[in-house]
Automatic annotation (TrEMBL):
The keyword Lipid metabolism does not apply. GO terms for molecular function: glycerol dehydrogenase (NAD+) activity; metal ion binding. This is Glycerol dehydrogenase. It comes from Synechococcus sp. (strain ATCC 27144 / PCC 6301 / SAUG 1402/1) (Anacystis nidulans). InterPro entries: ADH_Fe/GldA (IPR001670), ADH_Fe_CS (IPR018211), Glycerol_DH (IPR016205).
């Protein structure tokens, strides 16, 4: 996995020649706003930036479902909008095309409204134009909204690299009415992504050689946030999934949306990544997996593999039972793979070693070790009682 050289945070926070250990660094958006109906107030929130003309990047789904309401709110606040439609993958060509179009419009901020890849594309555009980005996630499926980085993909959807930015999103606005109206699968996938936060940050905190995405040591604050994130999911995850299934907003949903979006975003960026995301990103190298499964579903499998790398089967069982209860995959069959698919397992295992932060694991990582952990997690998943997982997995089977 390549790292773009446009901006390298390691050179700022932890240069190799500084002669002392890396500092602790905490990264966060300027404002995070979550609640029912807040989408219509985005234009008012832009007054914090003194923005009067915005470049609005929307996914096709968001344009259909939320576009009119968002544009009406901007107009009522006296903000002009130039609309561009995201085509589905955060690629360099997609970023360049929108950057070129927006550069002709004299905009003073970018609004990115959609899922994780649309949001990452919006962040990349704003960086190139030198203006703030306002993030409006319409799904709680991943922790991209609060971070100062973008994951880049090939046109086919294969994970190819990461790009860092000197500034976090200026404002993140999460309308829980919109989250509740989306399919349950997206919220559940977000739980898979968010659950990894605590386990990866915990590894990084314990390993004195581990560094975060910006080359710094994890902060206690980020690790505490990661722990609260996991606790919230264990306590409220099933109730939140049920709320979305019935298109209802309640306290459980509000808590899980915050965990998926804010807590996980702050926790991973300032707490660190490790084995879970190394394995997860590598699943995108398998065509039928990347075509049919969401990032958080792959991270769920990566988290179980990391816990097996750490020799923590009891905790892995606890996590697997939770994943099964909310409807996340817990064995290879639920990613349309098989333990006998040697070629696919070798591809994932080899690719995991190319993930920039797999070295945060406190042991020697080899393809054989990763493959063994993936298979151990698979067999654990198969051992989870059927009554826990079969009914909950309905939204992946459909």
């Amino acid at each position: 996995m390549e790292v773009s050289t446009g901006y390298l945070p390691q050179a700022v926070f932890a240069p190799a020649d500084q002669g002392h250990p890396a500092p602790r660094v905490f990264i966060s958006p300027q404002r995070y706003i979550q609640g029912r109906g807040v989408l219509r107030s985005v234009g008012r929130y832009l007054s914090l930036l003194q923005a009067k003309r915005a470049g609005l990047l929307m996914s096709q789904r968001s344009s259909r479902n939320e576009g009119d309401l968002l544009l009406a709110g901007l107009r009522s606040a006296g903000v002009d909008a130039v609309v561009s439609t995201f085509q589905g993958e955060c690629t360099t060509d997609e970023i360049t095309a929108h950057t070129t179009a927006f550069s002709k419009e004299r905009i003073d901020c970018v609004i990115a409204a959609g899922g994780g890849k649309c949001i990452d594309t919006g962040k990349a555009i704003a960086f190139r134009l030198g203006i703030p980005v306002v993030v409006v996630p319409t799904l709680a499926s991943n922790d991209a909204p609060c971070s100062a980085l973008s994951v880049l993909y090939s046109p086919e959807g294969i994970s190819q690299g990461v790009e860092f930015y000197p500034n976090s999103p200026a404002i993140v606005v999460v309308d829980t009415d919109i989250i509740a109206a989306a399919p349950e699968r997206y919220l559940v996938a977000g739980m898979g992504d968010a659950m990894a936060t605590w386990y990866e940050a915990s590894v990084c905190l314990r390993n004195p050689a581990a560094v975060t995405t910006v080359g710094a040591r994890p902060t206690l604050a980020a690790c505490a946030i990661g722990e609260v994130c996991a606790h919230t999911l264990f306590q409220e995850g099933c109730a939140a999934a049920a709320a979305v299934a019935s298109k209802t907003v309640n306290d459980a949903l509000e808590s899980v949306v915050e965990a998926n979006t804010l807590l996980s975003g702050l926790g991973f960026e300032s707490g660190g990544l490790a084995g879970a995301h190394a394995v997860a990103q590598s699943y995108t190298a398998i065509p039928h997996v990347r075509a049919n499964y969401l990032h958080g579903e792959m991270v769920a499998m990566g988290t179980l593999a990391q816990l097996m790398m750490e020799s923590r089967p009891k905790e892995a069982t606890r996590v697997a039972e939770f994943f099964a209860a909310v409807g996340l995959p817990i064995h290879l069959g639920q990613l349309s793979l098989s333990s006998s698919d040697t070629q696919a397992l070798e591809i994932v295992s080899e690719a995991s070693l190319g993930f920039p932060f797999v070295g945060n694991m406190p042991m020697k990582i080899t393809p054989e070790f990763v493959k063994s952990a993936i298979l151990d997690a698979h067999h654990l998943g198969l051992s989870i009682p059927e009554q826990i997982g079969d009914s909950a997995y309905r939204h992946l089977q459909g």
